[in-house]
Amino acid sequence: MNSRNLYSILIILLFCIGKTNAQEVLTIEEAMKIALENNFEIKIAKNNSKISETNVTIGNAGMLPSLTASVTDNNSVQNSSQTRQDGTSVSLDNAKNNSLNYGVSLGWTVFDGMKMFARLDQLKELQKLGDSELKRTILIKIGQVNSAYFDLVQQQQQLSALDTTIVISTKRLELAQNRFSIGKASKLEVLNAQVDLNTDQVTLLRQKESYANAKILLNQYLARDPKTDFTVTDSVTVDNTLVLADLMDLAQKQNPALEAQIINKRIAELQLKQVKADRYPVVNLTSGYNFAESQSSLGFTSQTSSRGLNYGFNATLNIFDGFNQHRNEKVAKLEIENSQIAIEQQNMILNTQLSTAFQTYLTNLELINLEENNEAIARQNMQITLDKFKIGTITTLDFRTAQLNYVNAKVRYSNAQYQAKLSEIALKELAGNISF
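The line above is the sequence of TolC family protein; the predicted structure tokens follow.
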């Protein structure tokens, strides 16, 4: 069998494998969709965002009145005696007494120094903060799904490379056995070929283990049964059009961490407004309708009842509280200052991370081109070496070296693509721009 026929068999073999699993391929788009629907941390973040949204009401801000109903019923049985001013006395055993009160009361704070309006605005900002946290969680989890997915692609490519070397090593063993049978090779050559084949089979087995574990990890991110079987696409497409300036502009607008710091500053400013509102009076309106009834077995009055409306208002003003108002305002201002510092710090961290990741990205793009050329050269060298080995013009050591060089070149090329994809994912995650 010549080298051309050997490579034809390999191509047919890989084609058949791909065709068999065609209906089981999980695309990256499907993986991200499943993660958005199933991932536990995303579900929790969604619920937290809904909680923040639910809290944005004028009632929670203190703008609406409160209405309460109450009922009180007291009863007693007593032995009673009374001595009156004229000297007469009266007594009664097991005297029954009862009183019943019920009604509704209304309370409404109509002015509190505009604190309620600042509180409502703060609730809205907290909702935005919840949305930002949801976005951050989604970006992180989608980034993890992308990384795990393309790790599987890389490992699948390495499995393919190892399958190829198994076929080559098997062919080498057959050639060595044939040469030995006709007296053109020693038993040592056969043994060396067998040892190398065994080594390749062990490496393939380890790679299958890594591939299976990587599948389990991706299933975990997708929040589904770890035993769910699937395959992934066999190629990695790297976006080589990213521009650092564009990524930095996007990050200023979309990065969740920076967005959260900006929202925190706004929340701190609204907190200062609420603190300053304590300098103003608080005016409450009160109203109610009550019914009261009492019965007594002993006394001048045996039964009384009343019902009616009551209304009024009260106002309070903090005149002096031990300088706590001044202290609270000072603390609130320092919180605003800290939030501004946090924004500047996050900006610096973000720009540093983007610059570093972009340099790694550029390096990885260059490595893709270099490793692609190396892989093509190694393939050509492997083909020539196989032809020479068949006619016995090179040693088994030279053949093995060419074989390993070919496999390693394929693995390095696959790894270069994977590392470049990781750089792309990291950059888009920092820019808040991962497509899903």
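Note on the example: The two ends are 49 Å apart (CA to CA). Residues 3-38+114-281+323-430 form a domain with the Outer membrane efflux proteins (OEP) fold (CATH 1.20.1600.10).
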